[in-house]
Design brief:
Helices cover about 35% and strands about 25% of the residues. It is of the alpha+beta class.
Length: about 220
């Protein structure tokens, strides 16, 4: 398909802004920092991923941007970022992804959150980013069911998803991972929207303009 098609390019100019976190599209400017994170053995283990070269990481970013089955946002620290005191790459704390894993069922989204910066863990950043991504998935992408697959040893993450109303539905002892699931009925949908009613949408390109340029 040509440019502009594919469900997931939908977010390439979307910023979702919450209290603690802002979600921005994964762009090439984010790659060096992202690449640096993924050198960490701990993160490789938690995300079940292989370390890539910087060049491969740029390739990945391009394919993710153009892939119709993935929606990726980089998680920024809102406070640091909106002060414009730092560029995106200095405010990056992690990423959040939504994958359409079932070709038969476009309403099922697999969600994945990574808070890569250790100093930001356990402070509600992952929770807010996940809620915001789920809300976006429900309102903009037509998702009605979420799944999360998490390594058995990652108790903090399993615990967080359970707080977000996910239920454990399967354990895979070979991959040592737990599958959690949430079916978004009307009640869950309302809860999600209530949890994220502080979320603002902005256009990414406008956010990037230096102050004062909008008035001209």
């Amino acid at each position: 398909p040509g440019p502009g098609t594919g469900a997931m390019r939908i977010n390439q100019n979307t910023v979702l802004r919450g209290e603690r976190v802002a979600l921005v599209p994964y762009s090439s400017a984010h790659v060096p920092r992202y690449h640096e994170w993924m050198q960490s053995e701990e993160l490789q283990r938690l995300t079940a991923s292989e370390p890539l070269s910087l060049e491969q990481e740029y390739e990945m970013q391009r394919s993710w941007r153009d892939d119709a089955d993935k929606c990726t946002f980089i998680v920024l620290d809102t406070e640091r970022w909106s002060g414009q005191a730092c560029g995106d790459e200095d405010c990056m704390v992690g990423d959040v992804n939504l994958f359409l894993t079932d070709t038969e069922d476009p309403t099922l989204g697999e969600i994945e959150i990574m808070i890569a910066e250790p100093s930001y863990r356990g402070r509600g950043f992952g929770k807010e980013a996940t809620l915001m991504m789920m809300s976006y998935g429900v309102t903009d992408l037509g998702i009605t069911k979420f799944e999360a697959k998490i390594g058995q040893e990652n108790e903090a993450s399993i615990c967080m998803f359970k707080k977000l109303h996910f239920k454990e539905v399967a354990v895979n002892s070979v991959f040592q991972e737990v599958t959690l699931r949430l079916d978004v009925n009307d009640q869950e949908r309302q809860w999600l929207l209530d949890q994220t009613n502080h979320m603002e949408r902005q256009s990414y390109t406008e956010m990037k303009l230096p102050a004062g340029e909008l008035e001209t």
